[in-house]
């Protein structure tokens, strides 16, 4: 039956509108070439609809399948992953609309659209994608209503009216289910790696890499503080600790800390194993360097997808999240690469003399890692550091002299330094003396190691832009920063930020504001519209950032703990069985209320005027001795008129004929009803 039933022109137009609506949320996650192909197929379908070309032949379907699989393999490299599955669904969706011939094909297009939108939400759940998906589902519902309409013609307004009513009726039920249904942990998980690279910190650092990172205004993460907010100069977000130096580039010791390279992961990245990572303290396998910490989080971080394991946090962090570990060098790491936006709570550990003793023991095991450097490269700065250490063989005095040097001499902070040669640190320190955080951190760390002081370079972010209205901090990629930590026996690891000496405004105020104040190559360093003087553009961007932040914190991150806190706030102590029973009763009551509003049993039923007129005729005939009720047809009544005078028979027959003509003509005007009433009175 579905194959025999054709699809109306109006329903076909709705399906074409649906295809355009589905392409909008897909454009955020799937490649542009697929969007171009979809628009080309849409134009093909439009030409078929207008009768300009014929539909494709049967062999087209088989050829389209082969071409689709070949394109996915050629352009994406693999099929067995979420994005490959989404691409195949998209191909089926756009090509099925071209060969659509009957209702069965149309319903299959709707099913493909539902699957495609659902898979797209696995790839991205941002606010704009969610809004676009909701609109697409509304158009899909309009198509469904139009396809199931039984009648000669489908009107444009009918699907819109019915779909809008269904949306309005379903919204309260959806909200109640979202808030009240128990949030259980997932039984199984799949990798949602979209395969798209993200701008962010890597496990290595060279001045060129950091320069490109600072030139990006992509959002890195957001932070909300449960207590007082630290000062701008205290916001050092540690993420990567780099200890291996080859003369130009600083590298994280992945094999040492993680047992393997956590960056080199495939489409199905394996999580870090707590049994094979002895230098990481996991919740199920705590290590001695985990200090006693409070249970109440001090701040919460919403991290954007980075494709990396490391999680930015302030000094001495700890997180109770089961998927987050604490590395021995006091930074947080996730079991898997962060492929989707996540939120995690952080507590600052209370570290004292016992923890300092543990740090000394760890340092003794890794001292050589913090002291090694290539002696064949950068000979000038090695000699310079050795001479300075002979004059001032004290770590504090040594560092103080270096900071005074960059303040008093012609060193400058710039995002566009000259290119360096083979001895990169020598060229920077003695020749051009112009650079940014990576240059200064690299030079200071090398000189400290030459002096025999254990040193490491820290990559992360500094500062951020505070939103007073929404009360959260947003940190972007241009806030990326590098600094040094060196060891002192009486203090442990001490932070040293040379940038604070050469460009204190970079530390004491948000980076965007310091750019405007000092004009550090503003037009080249960052997207120009981001720092436009247009107030309405800046205000619009801030408002959207707030909505995105609230969407993730209150909707996407609505998990079991947040649900329990909300329900206890509303109902106090409760039992899950009572809550589920209340939920069922509430939904049943809502459905019953909607049914009552639709049925309106309290209203007196309205009877058709023609029915009332026919009932009046039957009463008059009964007074004339004719057996007549509503079960008898008009023709049966005419056969009982033989005993009446001929003029009455003719009048009754004429009235019944006029009534029948009015009843089945479909045109019941007030004039015809009035004439029938007058004729009835005369009988």
Description of the structure:
The chain is an alpha+beta fold. Helix content is 51%, strand content 12%. The protein has 25 helices and 19 strands. It has a 6-stranded antiparallel sheet with strand order 9-12-7-2-17-16, covered by helices on one side. It has a 4-stranded antiparallel sheet with strand order 3-15-18-19. A 4-stranded antiparallel sheet has the order 6-10-11-8, with no helix packed on it. Helix 13 links the parallel strand 13 (412-413) and strand 14 (434-435). The longest helix is centred in the N-terminal third of the chain and has 24 residues, at 157-180. Residues 194-199 and 517-532 have low confidence and may be disordered.
What are the SSEs and their pairings?
Layout: H1 9-26, H2 32-49, H3 59-76, H4 82-98, H5 103-123, H6 127-147, H7 157-180, E1 204-205, H8 207-214, E2 219-225, E3 236-242, E4 244-245, E5 250-251, H9 254-258, E6 280-281, E7 299-303, E8 310-311, E9 317-318, E10 324-327, E11 331-334, E12 342-348, H10 353-371, H11 379-391, H12 395-408, E13 412-413, H13 424-432, E14 434-435, H14 437-450, E15 455-462, E16 465-467, E17 472-476, E18 480-488, E19 492-496, H15 499-502, H16 504-508, H17 511-518, H18 522-525, H19 535-556, H20 560-571, H21 576-599, H22 609-623, H23 634-638, H24 646-665, H25 670-682
Helix pairs in contact: 1-2, 1-5, 1-6, 2-4, 3-4, 4-5, 5-6, 6-7, 7-21, 11-14, 22-25, 24-25
InterPro entries: Bact_TGase-like, Papain-like_cys_pep_sf, TgpA_N, Transglutaminase-like
Protein name: DUF3488 domain-containing transglutaminase family protein
Domain Transglutaminase-like: 429-500
